[in-house]
Amino acid sequence: PGVFDYYALVMSWSPTYCADRRSDGYEPQCDVRSGRPYAFVLHGLWPQHERGWPQNCRTADRGWVPGPVAQRMLDIMPSKKLIFNEYRKHGTCSGLGVDGYFDLARRLHDKVRIPPRFVRLTDDRLQVSPGELMDDFLTANPELKPDMIAVQCGGSGNRLREVRICFDKAGNFRACGPNENQRRLCAASRMYVPPV
């Protein structure tokens, strides 16, 4: 734990996740009756090596997330299952412990400004290139540079899946490593962005 080069803050596009889900149980972020339409949600904060990444590190807490910690993350990570899984798989490798990991995840998440057109997207025909989406993020976050962000797409209609933004261990934006290779994550010239 704690031995890695940088973090990738991963924000999933919730409408794509919900559209791709099998009906294998209740998922709060996909419940249209909840009254809370989700756009970008925090998927996780991933410790990364320049090539590859650590996962499922051995820690004294054995990857356990206390209920109150999970509860306070639900506004940006709307699934306890996701919170528990992300800490076990990625957070244990941060070397920060459960509170430190989720505190940093929230701080970095809050540092990123979401471009206005993706906040309450209702247009069911929006298609953009990965470059256009990146440009929107660069405009909304002037301290961000093109090599600090990557976009993933896939599935039916090359849908937007996630945006990854890279940070150093101190929480400053930094260039991503080869793990966030844009051609591998989304080589499509256009991608569909399902509405919220």
Helix content: 25-40%
First-to-last CA distance: 37 Å
Low-confidence stretches: none
Please, how many helices?
Answer: 6
Largest beta-sheet details: 4 strands, antiparallel
**Counted beta strands:** 6
Give a written overview of the molecule:
The protein has 196 residues and is α+β, with helices and mostly antiparallel strands. 28% of the residues lie in helices and 18% in strands. The chain is built from 6 helices and 6 strands. The strands form 2 sheets. Strands 2-1-5-4 form a 4-stranded antiparallel β-sheet. Strands 3-6 form a two-stranded antiparallel sheet. A hairpin with a 4-residue loop joins β4 and β5 (159-167). The model has no long low-confidence stretch (mean pLDDT 94).
